[in-house]
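User: Teach me something about this protein's shape.
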Amino acid sequence: METLEKLKQIRSRHPAPPAGSAAEAQALARFAQFFSSFAPDRVDKLVPQTYAEDVYFNDTLKAIEGRAALSHYLRESAEAVEACRVEIHETTRTANDEHLVRWSMMIRFRKFRRGVDTWTVGMSHLRFDAEGRVVYHQDYWNAADGLYQHIPVLGTLINAIKRRL
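Assistant: First, the predicted structure itself:
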């Protein structure tokens, strides 16, 4: 199903916390806390508090439905990095009761370019349910700079293409 159609369905099923409410502030704080230090033990502990059971998640690498599948994916992702953290710079509430969260992410990979901090920027489009848990999470970021360019051979090709543009 197309992402925009999925979002329309989620909007119809999940009323958002009122603008300026304590529930909204707590939801944003839980999201920020979750990604402030991305580690396997934190994933296990914080996914149930942060994400709704029927969450839709798309980080441009993979689209996932359901909290159990998301927890598994995020745990594997956290295990693949030596360190990862997200610094939130700005949050904007939209007319549709959703949030756009602008961030920078630092990743230090276990397998690629060991010991090197890789920084990338992006934005998350979020919708929270009435309990303040994320029911829709769509990331927009440059995966070529943040991930692909660090993979042997593929990274060399991406950098060659960039030089030619």
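Now, about its shape. The mean pLDDT is 87. The first strand starts at residue 51 and ends at 58. If you'd like, I can walk through any region in more detail.
User: That's plenty for now, thanks!
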